[in-house]
Amino acid sequence: MNRLARITALCFVLVLFATPVMAAEDGGASPENFSIYLGAGVGAGLVVLGAGYGIGKIGSCAVESIARQPEVANNIQTAMIISAALIEGATFFGLVVCWFG
Question: Which residues, 6+ apart, have CB-to-CB distance to 24 below 8 Å?
């Protein structure tokens, strides 16, 4: 299975799991609001995919850097944790915008 097919399948699954977002207080999602909820679900999925890719890239590069220069492992780990925290903060902001915006 190639990479594009995997990403497409993952996005489809994320849209399916975004159905709780469509639970409206008035008894159901109206057809005119469906595209808004679908967009929020897709947006939230893309935010999470981007964050996962970014944190994975940070981790892989940090491990490679530590393998090349073990004497600066503490500095690399500190920078990696700070970068991952910044990515997670931006991810939470993006999720809040998608869900409540």
Answer: 30, 33
